[in-house]
Design goal:
There is one protein chain. It contains 14 helices and no strands. It has 358 residues and is mainly α. It has one domain. Helix 1 packs antiparallel against helix 2 and helix 2 packs across helix 9. The two termini are 21 Å apart.
Length: 358
C-alpha cells in the first residue's frame, strides 16, 4: 500500500512537538533564558498524536491480510532494534555516570523490563520508552483480534467495555499493579480513536474532512496554548483522562482530515523535507533527549551566564541536532535493519503462517 504522505508529515510534526516540550525543560535547567513560553511543555501532545496514528496504521495498513505472528514480527522489527540501540547508549552512560540517567525517577529501574518493554513501577531506562510499552500492548491486543478473526469494530467495543468493567471493579488491584495500570490507562482510548478513523478510511467515505481538520487544529492549539496551562494539566490528578480529551480527540479529527486527503483524486504536493522528517520521526523521538541534553550541558559549560541568547542557541541547535541525529540513526541503522528483518521474516514465513491459512 502506498505511503500516506500526509500521515508521514503528521509523524514528523508529532516528533518535533515532543522535542519542543523537552527543550522547554532543558532550557529551564541549563540556560534559563525564558524564551520558550510555558505552554511549550504541552508539546507532549505529540505523543497523543502518535497514539492516534498508531491505531489508524494498525487498521488501515499493518493488520490487513496478515497472520498474527507475521503482524507481531513486523511490529517488533519496527520498534525493538532501534529502541535497543539507543537504550544501550543510555545504559553505557548509566554505568559511567548514573546520576545523568532519569535523575527524577524514584526507585530502581528494571533493566530487563526496560529492554523488553514490560510494564514496571518506574520509567524504563530510556524514559521515552514508556510510550512504546503502550504500543506493545496495542500490538498484542490487535494480534488477538487477528488470530480470533474478531471484526475490528466489535473488538474495539468489547475491549473498551472490558476495560471500563475492570476499572470499575478492581481499583485497588490496579493501584498496585503496573500491568493493570497499563491496560486500563485512558490513553488506550487514543489508539481506539485512530482505529475507528482507520475503519472509516477503509470504507472510502469520509465526509466533512475540512470541518474536522479545522476543528481539530483549532482545538489542539487551544488546548496546548491555553487550556492545559490554565488547568495545570501536568499536575492534575486526572492527567491522562484530560489529555485524551484535550489532545487525543483533536488529534483524531486532524487524522481524519489528513487521511481523507489520501482518497482524493487530485495529487497533493508534499515537501520532501516534511516527508523525510516523518520517516526519521521514530529515531528522532528515541534520540532527542540525549541530543538536546548534550547540547544543553555544552552550552552551560561554554555559556555559564545563560540568558536569552543562550536559550535561542539551545532551541535552534537542539531542534536541528535532534532531527539530524534522527536522520542518521534512521538511514544508517533503522532502515537497513528493518529491510533485513522483513526479508528474514519472508524466509521464515512458513513457520509464521499456519498451513491452513495458505
Amino acid at each position: 500500500m502506498a505511503k500516506l504522505l500526509t500521515l508521514q508529515v503528521a509523524r514528523g510534526v508529532a516528533a518535533n512537538l515532543v522535542v519542543l516540550s523537552h527543550l522547554s525543560v532543558v532550557e529551564a535547567k541549563y540556560t534559563a533564558g525564558g524564551v520558550l513560553p510555558s505552554f511549550t511543555l504541552y508539546g507532549m501532545a505529540g505523543v497523543d498524536l502518535f497514539f492516534v496514528l498508531s491505531g489508524f496504521i494498525m487498521v488501515a495498513v499493518a493488520g490487513r491480510g496478515i497472520a498474527p505472528l507475521q503482524f507481531l514480527w513486523r511490529r517488533a522489527a519496527r520498534i525493538y532494534p532501534t529502541y535497543w540501540l539507543v537504550s544501550l547508549v543510555v545504559f553505557a552512560v548509566a554505568i559511567v555516570e548514573p546520576a545523568m540517567v532519569n535523575s527524577s525517577v524514584v526507585g530502581p529501574i528494571s533493566i530487563w523490563r526496560s529492554f523488553l518493554l514490560v510494564p514496571a513501577p518506574t520509567l524504563p531506562l530510556l524514559a521515552v520508552g514508556w510510550t512504546l510499552i503502550h504500543e506493545v500492548y496495542f500490538y498484542l491486543v490487535f494480534a488477538i483480534f487477528i488470530a480470533l478473526r474478531v471484526p475490528i469494530l466489535a473488538g474495539l467495543v468489547g475491549w473498551g467495555l472490558l476495560l471500563l468493567g475492570v476499572t470499575a471493579v478492581a481499583p485497588n488491584q490496579i493501584a498496585i499493579s503496573p500491568a493493570l495500570q497499563l491496560v486500563t490507562n485512558p490513553l488506550t482510548a487514543e489508539f481506539m480513536m485512530g482505529a475507528a478513523v482507520g475503519l472509516v478510511w477503509r470504507e472510502r467515505n469520509m465526509p466533512g474532512a475540512i470541518i474536522a481538520g479545522v476543528t481539530g487544529f483549532a482545538a489542539l492549539a487551544l488546548s496546548i496554548i491555553y487550556l492545559a496551562p490554565t488547568l495545570a494539566l501536568i499536575t492534575s490528578q486526572h492527567f491522562n483522562v484530560l489529555r485524551v480529551v484535550m489532545f487525543g480527540f483533536p488529534s483524531a479529527l486532524i487524522l481524519y482530515a489528513l487521511a481523507a486527503v489520501g482518497h482524493r483524486p487530485v495529487s497533493l504536493r508534499v515537501p520532501k523535507l516534511l516527508v523525510a522528517l516523518g520517516d526519521w520521526s521514530y529515531a528522532t523521538y528515541l534520540v532527542h533527549i540525549l541530543v538536546i541534553s548534550a547540547v544543553g550541558r555544552a552550552l552551560a559549560f561554554l555559556w555559564p551566564a545563560g540568558g536569552t541568547s543562550a536559550s535561542l542557541v539551545l532551541i535552534m541547535l537542539g531542534l536541528i541536532a535532534a532531527n539530524i541525529a534522527g536522520a542518521a540513526v534512521h538511514l544508517l541503522f533503522e532502515r537497513p535493519t528493518l529491510i533485513w528483518l522483513h526479508r528474514l521474516g519472508s524466509r521464515i514465513q512458513p513457520r509464521l503462517v499456519p498451513q491452513s491459512s495458505n
